[in-house]
Amino acid sequence: MAAGAAEAVATVVEVGSAQQFEEHVRLKAKSLLVVHFWAPRAPQCVQMNDVMAELAKEHPQVSFVKLEVEAVPEISEKYEISSVPTFLFFKNSQKIDRLDGAHGPELTKKVQQHASSGSFPPSANEHLKEDLNLGLKKLIHAAPCMLFMKGTPQEPCCSFSKQMVEILHNHNIKFSSFDIFADEEVRQGLKTYSKWPTYPQLYVSGELIGGLHIIKELEASQELNTICPKVPKLEERLIVLTIKASVMLFMKGNKQEAKCGFSKQILEILNSTGVEFETFDILENEEVQQGLKVYLN
């Protein structure tokens, strides 16, 4: 009876030091290790501790650990824990996945997924690395200026990313971005690929320019404006748009769906003539909508 009761007890171990944490990662190398970075003051963390306890009952072959963020700051900093709850997944002493936020169903899914998957042989690892590097190269070249950041330009998730976005906007620099929280494989792989351990990272024409500190130095020396592509001025954009096709219709809606009676009538006339034309939906860009009125006058 006592043995049966012991098996039913959830095995979530609390770690209180960096040494204990590293020891757990080393000792549990052959199994899946799930680490919950939490804070007692956060109700959502307490709730996720309960989820962890249930998962521990269901997956006795998996090791579950909880670590108070503020109690072991060096570990939190090492793994870039910026919010709680955050879950890290380890296998073969290597971090293989991450989950940010109190998402019980997603945590359950990831535990099931990683618990059932085996380790890859060395040859498979090499192929995976090649595939990852190819994917990273494509991402870096996705736009002339690419910012890899925590969060999005509209909602940065760390002060460094926020400052970087502000600098780029202040200098009217045209850039695209990638949220590294959206893909843990990209997040970890890019550090190795670029030999740059932190985020944000700014790339121009596929070349790493640097992080926030470097960008601030380039801003101070006025070199930033010569390196990064600029957002075209409104008048230049309007000229490009108006000559995009021989016949260009600026309308409310698009070819498939006109959103006002006048636009619908003009579409019907153009379609009946067989003339080839392109359209631009002015409802999707207020700046173009207003600027075009002034430009045409």
UniProtKB/TrEMBL annotation:
Boundaries of every Thioredoxin domain copy: 1-116
Localization of this protein: Cytoplasm, Cytosol
A Pfam family assignment: Glutaredoxin
Any GO MF annotation of the entry: iron-sulfur cluster binding
Entry's Gene Ontology BP terms: intracellular iron ion homeostasis
Keywords per UniProt: Cytoplasm, Iron, Iron-sulfur, Metal-binding, Repeat
Top-rank taxon, per record: Eukaryota
Gene3D superfamilies linked to this entry: Glutaredoxin (3.40.30.10)
Family annotation (InterPro entries): Glutaredoxin (IPR002109), GRX_PICOT-like (IPR033658), Monothiol_GRX-rel (IPR004480), Thioredoxin-like_sf (IPR036249), Thioredoxin_domain (IPR013766)
PROSITE patterns: GLUTAREDOXIN_2 (PS51354), THIOREDOXIN_2 (PS51352)
Main location: cytoplasm
Cellular compartments per GO CC: cytosol; nucleus
Keyword Lyase: no
Protein name per its UniProtKB record: Glutaredoxin-3
Native species: Heterocephalus glaber
